Amino acid sequence: MALRGVILLAVVSGAACFNAPHLHARPASAMRAVGVRPRAQLARTPVAVARVSMAEAAPAEGSSGLLNTLKVGFLFGVWYAFNIVYNISNKKILNALPFPWTMAVVQLGVGLLYLLPLWMSPLRKAPKLSSENIKALMPIALMHGIGHLCTVISLGAGAVSFTHIVKAAEPFFSTVMSAIFTKSYFPVPVYLALLPVVGGVGIASLTELSFSWVAFLNAMGSNTAFSLRAIFSKKAMEKPQGENMGAANLYGVLTIMSFLMLLPFALVLEGAKLKGGWAAAIAAGHTANYLLKTSLVSGLFYYLYNEVAFLCLDNVHPITHAVGNTIKRVVIILASVVVFGTKMTPLNQIGSSLAIFGVLLYSLAKQYCK
Fold it and tell me: Cα 137 from chain centroid?
C-alpha cells in the first residue's frame, strides 16, 4: 500500500508542477541525458506513438495549451513512477542476490528484449551504423556502462536515499570535467550554486546512519562516469552518427554496447558464485519466480524510465526539465524512505534538502547566466 501511495504521489506531482510558460517554449534536447543532439524527429516507440496521438487529438488551439500541460504532466508522472519502481525492485533483488555486476548486466540486457522486437516492427526503424560510427560511440558506451554499474553497486551497498543524495553532486563533477577536458568555464553564479550541493552532500554523508564507503565511492564514480559520458558525447556530435539515430535509438545502441562491454567482466567476477548465491536466496525464503520476476522488472523499468525521460526532455524547456529532475530526485528519496523504512536524522534531512536545493539553483543559474 505504501508503494502504491508513493507512485500515485509521483504521478500527481508530475501533473501538478508543469503548468508554466516554459512548457510552450522550444523543447530541450531529448538527449540531454547523454549530451547528444537528437535528430529532428524522435523515433517512434509505443510511448511516442501515444504522445503523437495525444497531440493530434487536440480539438482547437484554445484547448491545446491545457492538453499539452496535461500531456507533459502525465509524462513526468510516469517518469517518476517508473524510476521509483526501478530503484525499489533493484534494491530488493540486490538484497536477495548481492551480485551487482550481474544485475547491472541483466538490466542492460533486458533492454535488448525491448529493443529488438521494436526494430523488427514498423514502430521504429532500426539504426544503421558503420564501423566508424561504432568506434565513435565506444567511449560514450563505456562511460554509460561504468556509470550504470557504479550506481547499481552503490544502491546495493547502501540506502537508496543515500545514493541519490550523493548522486545529486553530479553537476559539480560536470563542471570540473568540463574545465579539465574541454576548457569550458561558467559564470561565477553557476559555481556559487555548487556550494550548497557540496555542503549538503557532505552533511548528509557525515550524518548517514548506514554510511558505507562502497556506496559513497561508487556513487561518486557514477557521477564521474556520467560527466565524462556527456563530454565524450559532445565530441561525438562532430562526427556522423549513422542512419535512424534519433534520441531513443541512440540510447538503445549505447545500452547494447554497454551490455557487451560489461558481460565478460560480470561472468569472470561473479559467474562462479551465481549458483551458490541462487541457492542461498532460495534457502532464505525467496522463490525462483520472485528472483526472476524482480530481476526482469528492474531491467524493464530501468530501460523504460530512460525512454520516458527522453519524451519528457523532448517536450519541455530546459528550466522546466531542471525543476522536474529535482522533484524526481525528491520523490525517489521519499519513496525509498517509505518502502524500506530508512531512518534519517534531522541533520541528514537538512543536508539532503540543501544538496537538492543546490542542484536546482545550479540548473537555473546555468540556464540564465549565459
Answer: 19
